[in-house]
Amino acid sequence: MAQKPLFRFGATDSLATLLERNEKWANRVSSVRPSLFPTNAQGQAPKILWIGCSDSRAGEGCLDLLPGEVFVHRNIANLLPDSDFSSLSVIQFAVQVLKVRHIIVCGHYDCGGVWSSLTSKKLGIIDHWLRPIRDTKVRHKAMLDAIEDPKDKCARLVELNVCAQVNNLKRNTVIIEAQGERDLQIHGVVYDPGSGLLKEIMVPEDEYAEDYFVSDAGELVH
To answer: Which residues of the sequence carry a binding annotation for Zn(2+) (predicted)?
Structure first.
């Protein structure tokens, strides 16, 4: 018997469709893991913080884990600027309260935010948000200019952006303190929407690390 194709939410579908599918999903999961939802009702204890892009194709679902296993923060182009209180709050809660053991920064190929950063087209308020990617582009101008194919250039900038955000994490005082106390691992990965696969990115040593240090008061100074 042919396998039933995966559902795609269409223009004629409604919230009722989603609620019906939710009920079927909850019943299906409960039949396989009867203790999952009662356990989740008591609180959360995830070991992973996932920091990814808001792109609908590139969520933490690719890890194939159950509800309660991954604490999640997503925004356009998976950025972690030191002025963003949303991501800073997520990081602090995940590290200091939930005591996660792994932080995964996940970019993805064909990222709209990265594509936009490769052009001079004005998009409005999002231009301010994407400024860190444009800065990364400038820092690696020679490398990127040597890549002729636009798709390959975008892919390389996606990887460079992941490296930059991993280094941003490593400069975070919450991260620095936690790594001094326990085994907290930070990973950079890129998701391929065309295959569904993740690829680990080897992040080079932070060339700007010497510009940052922690004061006696525990504050990050640069």
So the answer is: 53, 55, 108, 111
